[in-house]
Amino acid sequence: MSHTSAFDRRRRTIGLFGAPICALLVFLTPMPDLSLAAHKLLALMTLVALWWITEPLPLPVTALLGPTLAVVIGIVPASTAFSAFANPLIFLFMGGFMLATAMMHHHLDKRFAFWLLSRRWVGSNPKKILLAMGLATALCSGWVSNTATTAMMFPIALGLLGAIKEMFAAQGKILDLHTSKYATGIMLMTAYAASIGGSLTPIGAPPNLIIVGFLSEMSHIYVSFFDWMVWGAVSTILYFIIAYVVLARMYPLEVSEIAGADEFIAARRQELGKWTRAQKNTLIAFIVAIVLWVTPGIMSIVLEPGSPMIKLYNRLFPEAVAALVGALALFLLPVNFKERQFTLSWKEAAKGIEWGTLLLFGGGLSMGTMMYATGLSIWFGTLIIDALGGNPSEVALIAVFAVMSLLMSELTSHTAATNMVGPLGITAAMAAGFNPVPVAVAIALASSLGFMLPVSTPPNAIVYASGYIPITKMIKTGVYIDIIGIACVTIPLAIYVVKWVIS
User: Of 340, 149, 138, whose CA–CA distance to 242 is shortest?
Assistant: First the structure.
């Protein structure tokens, strides 16, 4: 048994038995400031949080367990506990998954990736190839799940490295990919760019929509798709620049040109052949969804705030409906009408929907909703404010929760980390009299900076399996990007850009 699996087994065993004991101790501890319902919820949240961290059960199962036990032990009625699973954001996610599935099924994602890699400016320069790989991954990840994007780009990266090895062999040189700095850099760029690109849109990564949902449920603040893309674009660009500079300096190739790299890319692109009807249909559906998503933002720039036309549009085409319009079009646009073949079948769509993520998302929202309903959120917010000296600055609050989210995401799923830290940050901000949006966005962005360990994110785990990344290199590189990213991007962006957008 490997050290990693031995650690995971020990962690899960401790969590399986230790979490219920801790939850019981919390319930038995006198807390006169809390109502009975809030006290029960605190104990339940202790159990759920510890099981999210230690993972003795699958994360979605724990997410379902939370609202189920809440009903059983009399915290809230079933209608309240499970209402979050019908949140419109669930359907926004679902529509996004369907669109992403169609893109992958019909190889539209590969067509885009190889198109970008084949640009004339890339050529055979190793640094430019690294840059193009990162750009293709990040841009895809803004619309397709981080995991799916990495799974798509991973074989492309392996193919590139294999071609480079062959090119070196043709010149009488031996390139050991297991010890090659450049191989490590390409693999890390594939994983990191997928995580970075996820901050571009609300559907790019689960933490984004979770935070949007918490803001809606707990503070009745609506964050539009367009608003998120404004600061998401800034964060993606800045994070990417940092990652590229660090990786290019730490993991260079021994030569300045890779002879034949452009031919390899051109050959892979040619293998895709001409555009198919299914690819054209998928592109149409995708463009429809994007147009519907960004139209309110454009209308708000052109028209006066609060315009009746904007209100009408938002009522008819909220983000969830926009996603479903694009997704449902895939089932209506024919590939071969005579044979009744359409762009996407339900069987294909169902396989592509990450049902576990939807359940985890719903479970997290449910816990946040119950915190608000029982008054536990106010208690938590006051407790945190008191712990920070009673009158913390907004900058300090953002920094504390950003770092907390980052550390949690390094040790557990970024989705679970956001579910745990998000409600705390929002309630603390409201208790301190601040707008909770900057703190919430900082939490979401920081949770995507899980770069240090293979267990931090699925993209990290995928590329680590290549054998080209020593664990010490991943830790060292991740520490650099984490520290620079959170200090130079996350905190300043939340303070200045996010506040400017929402003002």
Answer: 138
Q: Using an 8 Å Cβ cutoff, are 119 and 132 in contact?
A: yes
DSSP states along 155-214: HHHHHHHHHHHHHHHHTT----TTT-HHHHHHHHHHHHHHHHHTTSSTTSSHHHHHHHHH
- Looking up tokens 């900076």 gives 449
Which range has the top average pLDDT, 243-247, 296-300, 302-306, 457-461?
243-247
Q: Do 294 and 229 meet the contact criterion of CB atoms below 8 Å apart?
A: yes
Record the pTM.
0.69
**DSSP code, position 253:** -
| Domain end among 337, 353, 369 | 353
3-class DSSP assignment, residue 334: strand
**pLDDT (tens digit per residue) in 429-468:** 888 888 999 999 999 998 888 787 776 777 887 787 777 8
Nearest to 379 by CA among 15, 45, 84: 45
Non-local CB neighbours of 57 within 8 Å, separated by 6+ positions: 16, 51, 65
CB 66 within 8 A of CB 366: yes
Cα 83 to Cα 2, 206, 303, 346, 369: the distances in Å are 42, 19, 35, 26, 9
* Residues 312-328 pLDDT 10s: 887 888 878 888 999 99
Q: How many domains does the chain have?
A: 2
List Cβ neighbours of 103 (8 Å cut-off, separation of 6 or more): 109, 143, 144, 282, 286
Asked if residue 69 and residue 33 are part of one domain, the reply reads yes
> Are the C-beta atoms of residues 324 and 91 closer than 8 Å to each other?
yes
Of 490, 477, 499, 452, give the one whose Cα is nearest residue 199: 490
Q: What is the pLDDT of residues 394-439, one digit of tens each?
A: 888 899 888 888 887 776 667 777 877 888 888 888 888 889 999 9
Alpha helices in 29-84 (DSSP H): 36-54, 59-72, 78-81
> Does residue 243 fall inside a structural domain?
no
At which of 315, 336, 353 does a domain end? 353
- Contact residues for 79 (Cβ-Cβ < 8 A; gap 6+): none
In a domain, 244, yes or no: no
Q: Which of 180, 148, 125, 227 is nearest to 501 (CA)?
A: 227
Distance (Å, whole) CA 294 – CA 298: 6
Question: Can you tell me the distance from the alpha carbon of 201 to that of 232, in angstroms, rounded to the nearest whole number?
Answer: 6
Least confident of 135-144, 146-155, 475-484: 146-155
On whether both 101 and 66 belong to a single domain, the answer is no
Angle at the Cα of 358 from the Cα atoms of 321 and 49, rounded to 5 degrees: 135
Asked if 29 and 97 sit in the same domain, the reply is no
Q: Which domain holds residue 304?
A: 92-106+276-353
